[in-house]
Design a protein that fits this description.
The chain has 163 residues and is an alpha+beta fold. The protein has one domain: Molybdopterin cofactor biosynthesis C (MoaC) domain (Alpha-Beta Plaits). Helix content is 28%, strand content 29%. It has 4 helices and 5 strands. Strands 2-3-1-4-5 form a 5-stranded antiparallel sheet, covered by helices on one side. Helix 2 packs antiparallel against helix 4. The chain starts with 23 loop residues before the first strand and ends in a 7-residue tail after the last strand.
């Protein structure tokens, strides 16, 4: 189990000691999508969902979730995030909303989990606000696109480009 940093020599879960690591600028970008019926997407984009501004509420819930990731994922460290941005791209051809989260911090450990939690929470909020219209929505393809900072440096999904 030594290749997994969240387990000690006897296989017990542990929180990694990051106390000696230097503080560096960290960034993570994650994405995901929620597929739905075309009519549901039209209601969201047109601002006609009875519960209110679906994407506005989903954005706020994603930001709040990113800030509280260490309370949701047991071995995550609490971090001082410096920014969280959430973007939504409605795709009418595939009847889905693509979610993109960018999270930054200057800290001793990365912000990948915060970006992934933000995307997941945004998708779940969209589902919650629209389930009375469409219980068959599918949350899909939640993944890390890019991370930078720290000892391991840059990771970038080979199919992702920031340019």
């Amino acid at each position: 189990m030594s290749q997994f940093t969240h387990f000690d020599e006897s296989g017990q879960a542990r929180m990694v000691d990051v106390g000696e690591k230097p503080v560096t600028d960290r960034k993570a970008i994650a994405t995901g999508r929620i597929r739905m019926q075309p009519e549901t997407l039209q209601l969201i984009v047109g601002g006609e969902v009875k519960k209110g501004d679906v994407l506005g509420v989903a954005r706020l819930s994603a930001i709040m979730a990113a800030k509280r990731t260490s309370e949701l994922i047991p071995l995550c460290h609490p971090l001082r995030l410096t920014s969280v941005t959430i973007d939504f791209t409605p795709e009418t051809d595939s009847s889905e909303i693509v979610i993109l989260a960018k999270v930054t911090a200057s800290d001793r450990t990365g912000v990948e989990m915060e970006a992934l939690v933000a995307v997941s929470t945004a998708a779940l909020t969209i589902y919650d606000m629209c389930k009375s219209y469409d219980r068959g929505m599918i949350i899909d393809d939640v993944r890390l696109l890019e991370k930078s900072g720290g000892k391991s440096g840059l990771y970038q999904d080979p199919n992702f480009s920031t340019t």
